[in-house]
């Protein structure tokens, strides 16, 4: 069983479209995250959710919105896609506590054309 | 604030060479420190961690020691293999309970036979 799974793995779409990336974890973790990895491999946290409450929201455009229907899911919705949104997006989860390991999904490569 | 400064890559080594990837950090309080590895086409996975000063994390022949006096967590391996080719990320979490992982920029390692 995959611990953290995200779909789709690849997403190609046109500018201006709205798209969603889904993430599910079966580890029973309390906290889930979305990270953006740019072409230079730099990782930046976008959001984290703890017990369905947003606790971190970095300076990302409000076109990006996380949606958590339950503790095991954290989906990423993106409106009005722009060329600069092209990147690999990673979902992750962890237990409570700063010394615990984060488990990452395989990533979704988003290409905006 | 919290930040991680990591040695710029890429690093290219011959098989069986000694590896060091430098990592220093800035943090409030007493962070936990991590090394994550990203193999081609995959998500990140934890390589090793250390949660307090002078702790040594080790896994798969890799080691890193939490040095509070120099705020460092350098990654070392005595003899690298071709299969170690990947991108390595140094990271920290603070102790505020938010579980936010702060990543370095990543160092790409290529090991040639």
Structure explained in plain terms:
The complex is a heterodimer of chains A (113) and B (113). Chain A has 113 residues and is an all-beta fold. Helices cover 0% and strands 51% of the residues of chain A. Chain A contains no helices and eleven strands. Chain A has strands spanning 4-7, 10-13, 19-25, 31-37, 43-50, 53-57, 64-67, 75-78, 87-94, 103-104, 108-112. In chain A, strands 2, 4, 5, 6, 9, 10 and 11 form a seven-stranded mixed β-sheet that branches. A four-stranded antiparallel β-sheet of chain A has the order 1-3-8-7, with no helix packed on it. In chain A, strand 7 and strand 8 (75-78) form a beta hairpin. Chain A is globular. With 113 residues, chain B is an all-beta fold. Chain B is built from no helices and twelve strands. In chain B, the strands form three sheets. In chain B, strands 2, 5, 6, 10, 11 and 12 form a six-stranded mixed β-sheet that branches. A four-stranded antiparallel β-sheet of chain B has the order 3-9-8-7, with no helix packed on it. The radius of gyration of chain B is 14 Å and the shape is globular. Chain B starts with a strand and ends with a strand. The model of chain B has no long low-confidence stretch (mean pLDDT 92). Chains A and B meet through strand 5, strand 9 and strand 10 of A and strand 5, strand 6, strand 10 and strand 11 of B.
